Amino acid sequence: MAPTFVVRTSPLAWAEADAVMQILEEAEAPEAQAVSLVEADERRVLWRVEAYYEVPPTPAALEELGLDAAALSIEQLPETDWVARSLENLPPVRAGRFLVHGRHDTQLPPGGLRMEITAGTAFGTGHHATTRGCLVAADRLLKRRRPRRILDLGSGTGVLAIAAAKVSRAPALAVDIDPEAVRVTRENARLNGASVLVKAAVRLPARGARFDLILANILAGPLVDLAPEVVARLDPGGALVLSGLMVDQERQVAAAYRNRGLRLASRLRLDNWSVLVFMRPALPKKTFPRKKGPAGVLPAGPSS
Hints:
Blueprint: E1 5-8, H1 14-26, E2 34-41, E3 46-53, H2 59-64, E4 73-76, H3 82-87, E5 93-95, E6 98-101, E7 113-116, H4 129-144, E8 150-153, H5 159-168, E9 172-175, H6 179-191, E10 198-201, E11 211-217, H7 220-225, H8 227-233, E12 234-246, H9 250-258, E13 263-270, E14 273-279
Parallel strand pairs: 6-7, 8-9, 8-11, 9-10, 11-12
Antiparallel strand pairs: 1-3, 1-4, 2-3, 5-6, 12-14, 13-14
Helix pairs in contact: 4-5
């Protein structure tokens, strides 16, 4: 839980402010989440102590610490969406043909397929190298092939599913074990006019469901652990884009998928992060022998 109450002293001389700060820092009850010194008057060299709490301390509890409760103020902090505030200054991100931006971006550069992505508490605004790299890799694939069914595994905000679905007009399933990510994905699909194409869920469907484009931006360990399940979900001839791994983890992750019959088609490296693109070999085309005539003789071709 984030601290929601602050206890403040009046402006104090340095020695007195430092002593109060030590008392509040060392107190086990009431226990402060954070204590800081703030310059209150530069000319007179005065300081104010601020201590943050989940539950407001009582005046009696502060008196027991040897403090003058009457000289302290206790204030409830306004509710603030710190995640949203941290995203306010992030610029738009261009990745391949995609231009990912937030609601706060009112002046966008020209060109690109624009996607408004609200992060909330989910991962994936396009600013991290793994998300940006996946978008670039997906864009390259989608210029050469049109998938029939898309899976975004560990979808976060759903940015990868939405991007692939908008370009290909193919249905996409965004799966994340975090219900908040599922909610955010649905909201972003709605914002980008992709609600019909993009569905979100906390678990994969029955084992028979398969996809010919799978995007998985998670971490190296889970990518290795999930290799049997992911490969089983990939159609023959399908493409798989993996990220969330560092460059020095490429060999470990690549081995897990190569050992299950996939071919490493390409890799992309951004800021020491890696994106691996695999292909599953297509099934061999069926051939039908020509019918034989009497006594095993092949029928003659057309006469010249």
